[in-house]
Amino acid sequence: MEGYTTVKHDVLVIGSGGAGLRAAIEASALGVSVGMVCRSLLGKAHTVMAEGGVAAALANVDDRDSWKVHFADTMRGGQYLNNWRMAEIHAKESPDRVKELEAWGAVFDRTDDGRILQRNFGGHRYPRLAHVGDRTGLEMIRTLQDHGIHQGIEIYQEFTIIRLLTYSGKITGAIGYDREKGLFKVFESKAVIIATGGMGRIYKISSNSWDCTGGGISLAYHAGAELIDMEFVQFHPTGMVWPPSVRGLLITEGVRGEGGVLRNNKGRRFMFDDIPENYKNQTSMDEEEGWRYTQGDKNARRPPELLTRDHVARCIMREIREGRGSPHGGVFLDIAWIKEKISNAPEHIRKKLPSMYHQFKELAGVDITKEPMEVGPTTHYIMGGVKVNADTQMTSVSGLFAAGECAAGLHGANRLGGNSLSDLLVFGKRAGEFAAKYAKENTIPSASVDQIQRIIEESLAPFNRSGSGQNAFQIQSQMQDFMQELVGIVRNEKDLNAALDKIEALKKQVEQVSCDGNRGYNPGWHTAIELPHMVTVAEAITRAAIDRKESRGGHFREDFPDKSEEFGNVNISIKKDAAGNMKMERVQKEKMREDLKQIIEEMK
Amino acid sequence: MTKVTFKIWRSNGSPGDGKFQDYETDITEGMVVLDAVHQIQAESASDLAVRWNCKAGKCGSCSAEINGRPRLMCMTRMGDMPEGKPVMIQPMKSFPVIRDLVTDVSVNFRTKKKIKKFKPRPPDAPDGTWRMAQSDIDRVQEFRKCIECFLCQDVCHVLREHNLHEEFVGPRHLVYTAALEMHPLDVEDRRGDLKDEGGIGFCNITKCCTTVCPENITITDNAIIPLKERVVDKYYDPIMRFFRIFK
Ligand SMILES: Cc1cc2nc3c(=O)[nH]c(=O)nc-3n(C[C@H](O)[C@H](O)[C@H](O)COP(=O)(O)OP(=O)(O)OC[C@H]3O[C@@H](n4cnc5c(N)ncnc54)[C@H](O)[C@@H]3O)c2cc1C
Ligand code: SF4
Ligand code: SF4
Ligand code: FES
Q1: What per-residue confidence (pLDDT) applies to A300?
Q2: Nearest C-alpha of chain B: how many angstroms from A96?
Q3: On the CB side of A557, how many CA atoms lie within 13 Å of its CA?
């Protein structure tokens, strides 16, 4: 029988990205014992890659901004499928969460009068994103990390959680293994917070880091938690397309915020050709006005390049499909052109977009101060995930909380840029607070030894098939290929059903996965353990995408290209049924509070 | 497409264990060293251990020594490697090997924890916020670009040749301390710690750390030398000491 060790904490946080760190800091400040587990080293989580900024209505740059405008922008961007209570809390609390970072040592870029500078971003009416050049995520994670290490949090680095433990519908902890030695550990805890981030890695072309396999969403699902909005995946319009090895790597929206424009191979700014009705009032009608907007002219309206991501991504796809793309199958994003407008353009670009300059120079041999970039859509973010209570972040499983990208509700059908980093802070804090409260009010039933032994045996099974079974890396890349092709930006029923068939076949293959070598730092084994979780997430996305027979936000169905009123009021919910199958349900949205409705009307 | 030979260090982490193993794989345009390692993993060495996260030069996980030079594997293009020669990949030498290319960098996390945390002055405005001029934070922002790849720790001879991890915090943590000390809001004094536990005196300004920093942080000139000056001001300058006594 394989052994394991056990540790106890009041609150266990899974994940040390922005959401996990913020949750752990809050919970420990409330006096409970906190353990934080992360699959990578501390400070390396995907949050470190965030570029453009964190959205908060500080109104430092434009005093017309307020939580109400931020709320309305978020709802409009999410095509009103958002959980309105979450959108309200988020808009109201994010300014305080950003200011708090400054008290912990963050150094945001400044306005002329010495306050936190804010920049324009798609879908935000006023300049709203606090930022540090184009490395805001690094600033945020480092600030939280450097503050968090002095808070008495027990940190388990390079530990992977493979299953949550429950007892009669209540959470009792989690089980995982350390990468270094491959030894199992049981974390007994009264409350568990999953803050495991996104799932970009189940697609072939993705901006996400290695860590983003959607694992936590699957952990929660198998523990009985409800998922919602899984069909809504955000494809960011601007990823790198060349060279192949960096395909998908993100180019921040900040490039467009600073005046970058999109052109097709005819040199046309094609974004002017298709401006959605509900954004007409807010979009500039000519290039000159668009430029003035990016330079801070308060009377100008935003250029169409800064429309919401779902829309920009689809316009780019259209240009490519209709033969007006760039040589490597993208379109052109040009920031170099601003030299026509300002004298020190190259220096300005390097200062405002240092990582982008660096990234293109180093990886593609392109100088963005001189030439345009080639860009195309890339899998970026999942709006859906674990369903949570808007105020407490508790999931449908007692004692299980979720925050950050793995949780759902705030963003509805489409997320606005910058609203994720603020999401992590606002709801990370709340998850920490309410998990601590829950832990104080509850005791842990001890975990079942049988359950633990079974999980350990399953996890080790790939070694028993050593030499004979399927290669985990190959199965993973097969899945990435067909998810990209069949469940990507443009979807239809036939493709989605084909994907579902492939997923069923994949499940059988996954049962035959084998690995070689021993358990210490073994990437083959690690992938073998991740695979079933990735397949669960892929299945949830595909099933939800089949069920939503309309197009809205990140979900575009060419066989149902329009929005439908019926679907405008429902979220698609997914749960594991007693037989172990995915059960789908269309859940009516709760009616919005009158005062919030009024805000939306006023801001139309 | 060309075939390239890689000589990769394989070790189970126990002292004395380890040897270079040869692998061949096809290289296409634009590939970086990390891509090649992944390809080898998928083709012929599924248990080859390598640490990485972002593959975009942002997280500082994939540090290793490529042809003897400390670098990020994800930011080293195959096209920049000498043609027709094998590419040698080893783990960072300053840290104990866990397995293959993965090293135990935990000492860095312990060291950082010993450095006194940020302590701001009282807020400048009634709403709890501060005012800082951009020009006053440019320097600190340079230091805060650090991605904690620990390549500078790897190359620094004090740690690499003399293994003085307990006596000398190393360039990364001097950059970290500099970011705190030069933060316009910070009111903590870390000069005593720098001199004693920090061991700043061990640094003899060889500037090797600056050369390898993938974030192009001017570690020596902008962080270490000014810190050394501050320490000297406090502890060795007789005139300054005179003033302090009678203040
Ligand atoms: C390139 C890029 C740029 C972006 N820029 C912006 C931006 O400018 N503004 C914005 O608002 N948003 C941006 N986003 C989105 C934003 O960065 C992410 O949504 C956000 O960082 C997710 O944070 P998180 O805390 O939820 O999870 P993550 O930061 O992804 O952290 C997840 C954590 O969970 C751990 N984990 C996962 N599974 C397990 C497991 N099974 N066991 C143990 N640990 C596990 C991981 O190790 C990690 O520590 C960007 C995204 C990308 C890809
Ligand atoms: S300059 Fe100092 S810290 Fe940097 S490598 Fe040389 S001795 Fe080490
Ligand atoms: S200072 Fe530079 S080399 Fe040193 S850890 Fe930071 S980024 Fe890496
Ligand atoms: S993988 Fe993140 S820096 Fe190389």
Answers
A1: 93
A2: 10
A3: 22
